[in-house]
Amino acid sequence: MKRLSLYFSGPEEVEVREEKIEPPRGDSVLVENEFSAISSGTEMLFYLGRIEEDTIIDKGIGGLEKKFDYPFKYGYSSVGKVKEVGKEVSEEWKNKLVFSFHPHESRFITKTDNLIPIPSGIESEEAVFLPSIETAINLLMDGRPLIGENVLMMGQGIIGLLTTSLLNEMPLSSIVTSDRHQLRREMSEEMGAELSIKAEKNEEEFYLDDGLPDSGADLTYEITGNSDTLERAIRLTGLEGRIVIGSWYGDINSEIKLGTQFHRKRLKLISSQVSRINPEYSGRWDKERRLDLAWEYVRNMDLRKLITHEFSLKEAKKAYNLIEKDRRKILQAVFKY
Fold first, then answer.
1. DSSP letters along 150-173, please?
2. DSSP three-state, residue 181
3. Is 225 left (phi over 0), alpha (psi -120 to 50) or beta?
């Protein structure tokens, strides 16, 4: 039996390899992938090689718990069906639609502990959004938006759009967003933003004239992946406001002024990362409960409209090049097997 596997072989270099795999044995199963989602944030940092030395690729995904070094497989949003099972696995797993935090490849052998059965009524294309929605939920839990607050969202990629949608369900005074790309801004307003502004050097005047009160935002999310945006977030956030940083900047260095604006306004900078739940919630929340909530949003949101591009795995180079060079036209790209 053979499979196609995607390898990151160097900065801005990917290759698809044909590999031989054995049938599942013992407590293992064979999953044939249907879709896997490409992350335009973290995954693109790995594609570009913009990762600090000695970084563990991903501590939460089996097979990726190793230091960043080429070549390696990557990806963490795969949806497929169980086609074969080992002798120690119940036949009930056969043909079950499952999600896995697994790299991009056409089929793979794994244990059922690494699979999440997809609830009925959810299609394969929708299920690939599970990690992104889980991340958006975590951003809300870390930011703790309050009734009547003015919220600023900087960055409307997939994570930003989904976070905007979740915020729209809350009784806030306003949700103002920004992004460089028109397609994202239009989708942002469709998903609940009161106003979405083109991100540019003088964007502050637009925020204060048309969107935010003169006192600034109560809560700001920085999800652009651009470390320079953090300084603008500091200027636009009001007295004793919170700034939640959902971006991973990789090895990119940036000078950020933590002077008068930051100091006198007593701002709070909050790092948000989905692999951990805020310890303050640990008595009531765990990974399983957060995933259950994420599935509810997967079921109830119109997610397929966010998929703008589908590629075969053999078109991987074309896919990553498009995401890197021309994000104006793209929201979510997926591999279809």
1. EEEEE--SHHHHHHHHHHTTS--S
2. coil
3. left
User: What rounded mean pLDDT belongs to the chain?
Assistant: 91
**Measured distance CA(208)–CA(37) in Å, rounded:** 36
Domain that holds residue 313: 2-129+303-336
Q: Which residue ranges of the chain lie beneath pLDDT 50?
A: none
pTM, to two decimals: 0.93
How does pLDDT run across 54-111, given as a tens digit for each residue? 676 665 665 565 677 889 999 999 999 999 999 999 999 999 999 999 999 999 999 9
Number of domains in the chain: 2
Which residues, in sequence order, are bridge partners of residue 219? 151, 242
Q: How far, in Å, CA of 191 to CA of 302, rounded?
A: 10
Is residue 294 assigned to a domain? no
Q: Within 10 Å of residue 106's Cβ, how many Cβ atoms?
A: 22
**Residues near 205 by Cβ (< 8 Å), separated by ≥ 6?**
none
Q: CATH no. for residue 61? A: 3.90.180.10
For the chain, report the end-to-end CA distance as a whole number of angstroms. 16
* One-character DSSP codes across 270-327: EE--TTS--GGGTTT--HHHHHHHHHHHHHHS--GGGEEEEE-GGGHHHHHHHHHH-G
Q: Residue type for 199, please?
A: A
Q: What are phi and psi of 75, to 5 degrees?
A: 130, 150
**Both tokens assigned to 169:** 């369900």
- Are 123 and 10 in a shared domain? yes
